[in-house]
Amino acid sequence: MLAAPSIAIDLPLKILVWEDGQGKVWVSYNSSDYLKERHGLPQELLQNIAVVETLAAKAGE
Questions:
Q1: 51 — phi, psi (to 5°)?
Q2: Using H for helix, E for strand and C for coil, what is the string for the chain?
Q3: In angstroms, what CA-CA distances link 57 with 9, 51, 54?
Q4: pLDDT grade, residue 39 (50/70/90)?
Q5: What is the mean predicted confidence (pLDDT) over 52-56?
Q6: pLDDT at 2 over 80
Q7: Cβ-based neighbour number of residue 46 at 10 Å
């Protein structure tokens, strides 16, 4: 958080799994690209955050 203190508003990372009115299940989260743009994160720190995308993909299987 020293490199981008504002990221504290988005940490810890969250994944929302929800079902819509038609019974379709969705997995929602803030992508690493979104967090990079929002907080100006350096590329080397994105590797630690990008794991949420792998977890979300596994949850959707």
A1: -60, -25
A2: CCCCHHHHHHCCCCCEEEECCCCCEEEECCCHHHHHHHHCCCHHHHHHHCHHHHHHHHHCC
A3: 24, 10, 5
A4: very high
A5: 85
A6: no
A7: 13
For range 37-61, the mean pLDDT: 85
38: nearest Cα among 27, 30, 28? 30
Cα 41 to Cα 24: distance, rounded to the nearest angstrom: 33
Q: Cβ distance 57 to 32 under 8 Å?
A: no
Q: How far apart are CA 43 and CA 36, in angstroms?
A: 8
Q: What is the pLDDT of residue 4?
A: 86
